[in-house]
Design a protein that fits this description.
Blueprint lengths: L12 H13 L8 H13 L4 H12 L4 H6 L4 H16 L6 H17 L2 H15 L8 H6 L2 H10 L3
Helix pairs in contact: 1-3, 1-5, 5-6, 7-9
Length: 161
């Protein structure tokens, strides 16, 4: 017989900190509403957290943690991206996106942008464009300029070949 727990997916540390950061945001305005508590309880029901993670998150609901410290625990950029989507839902769940919540979200966005490696991001975009372009190498400078990733990008947007 197979135990269903054998297939239970583990919540990574980065993803766990995504949820902890989200729970910290609920405390940003120093008022945790019934709607915010219901939102967090729903997360606890739907995500397969370990027993230890669940205990920590339950504590996070009642005892505020430093939101910036929690945010720094998120190391995966995809987790950060999803965090902002969930945070938007959380801050509006009670119908009031207050000044304190707005300030916290601005600080977190600034922190997120400071951590982005734009050189790596631009390089990965350039590689995506290069994969789509046919290779022609006659050695001429004009040919290389025409086949640059940036030129390919603009040709796509402008509908030119």
């Amino acid at each position: 017989m197979v135990d269903n727990n054998d297939f239970k997916s583990e919540v990574s540390d980065s993803r766990f900190y995504m949820w902890r950061t989200l729970f910290s945001v609920a405390h940003a305005d120093n008022v945790v509403t019934d709607e915010e508590i219901a939102f967090m309880a729903h997360i606890l029901e739907d995500i397969d957290f370990s027993d230890e993670q669940t205990t920590i998150l339950k504590d996070d609901i009642t005892h505020p943690k430093n939101v910036e410290d929690m945010f720094r625990g998120m190391t995966d950029q995809n987790d950060r991206k999803e965090f902002f989507s969930f945070a938007r839902d959380l801050v509006w769940v009670d119908g009031d996106f207050g000044t304190q919540e707005q300030n916290v979200m601005v600080k977190l966005l600034q922190s997120h942008f400071e951590d982005i490696d734009f050189d790596e991001l631009v390089g990965s975009v350039a590689l995506e464009f290069e994969e789509d372009m046919p290779r022609v190498d006659d050695g001429s400078v004009s040919q290389r300029k025409q086949s640059s990733p940036i030129n390919a990008f603009f040709r796509r947007i402008l509908g030119k070949k």
